[in-house]
Specification:
By secondary structure, the protein is mainly alpha-helical. Helices cover 80% and strands 0% of the residues. It has one domain (11-222). The protein has helices spanning 11-42, 50-57, 60-73, 82-116, 118-121, 127-151, 156-169, 171-190, 193-198, 200-210, 212-222. Helix 1 runs antiparallel to helix 2 (50-57).
């Protein structure tokens, strides 16, 4: 006799479960990021507010890490409880994330402030492309380190080194992250932060999928036998 199929095992059930999982993670992303998003919406877009922007962005790091944790858990979870995985990832990783997220935001804030005040500072014009390259490299490093910290318990300095190493060791991952960052920036510039926030879980899912080769290599080379 053929085995009885459990409810939700069919294509429609799996699709409904996936939609539910993504919706719950999206709602939790919005919930944990809401204070930062409200503060950002109230801030005037001026160079003088760069330190405040950095402060407002601090909660987004732990939220994004928890989202990544919950999204990856969907592949192996045997219960439909995305919220429990999200809060577990948040609880486990928030401190480690802030150790790398906060310094990255500070440096990015300084780069952005310097670019916004380039004309007033009287520095040569070639300084702008240099700052843009530094900023782009730091953004790519930040995505790498956020992914690594979300799934591995390395020390902060080791995670930072691995994130830098994989910029060169996995150039296709870096290129994919660059495309996703350009996409995110384009949506924010052409619309607003709120619209991007509504689909943040989809963006994080693409980040996680793109980081697959990086995560597999870290697991094989640095956690084997651990």
């Amino acid at each position: 006799m053929a085995e009885r199929r459990e409810f939700g095992d069919g294509p429609l059930g799996r699709a409904a479960n996936a939609v539910y999982w993504y919706l719950v993670v999206e709602l939790l992303l919005v919930l944990t990021s809401l204070p930062a998003l409200v503060a950002l919406a109230l801030l005037d877009r001026s160079a003088g507010n760069a330190p405040l922007v950095v402060l407002c962005l601090l909660p987004l790091g732990p939220a994004a890490s928890a989202g990544l944790f919950a999204l990856r858990a969907r592949a192996t979870a045997d219960v439909l409880t995305p919220a429990s995985f999200f809060w577990r990832g948040y609880r486990l990783n928030w401190a480690d994330v802030l150790r790398v997220w906060a310094p990255a935001l500070v440096v990015l804030g300084l780069v952005g402030f310097s670019l916004a005040n380039l004309g007033a500072s009287g520095v040569p014009g070639w300084y702008a492309p240099v700052l843009l390259v530094i900023g782009a490299g730091l953004l790519l490093w930040t995505v790498n380190v956020l992914v690594i910290v979300s799934f591995f318990g390395f020390r902060a300095r080791d995670s930072a080194r691995l994130a830098a190493y994989y910029l060169a060791a996995r150039p296709l991952v870096a290129l994919g992250n660059l495309s996703l960052l350009v996409l995110a920036g384009g949506v924010i510039v052409l619309t607003n932060e709120a619209l991007f926030g509504m689909f943040a879980v989809v963006w994080l899912a693409f980040v996680l999928r793109n980081a697959g080769p990086l995560l597999a290599d870290v697991e094989e080379r640095f956690t084997a036998g651990a």
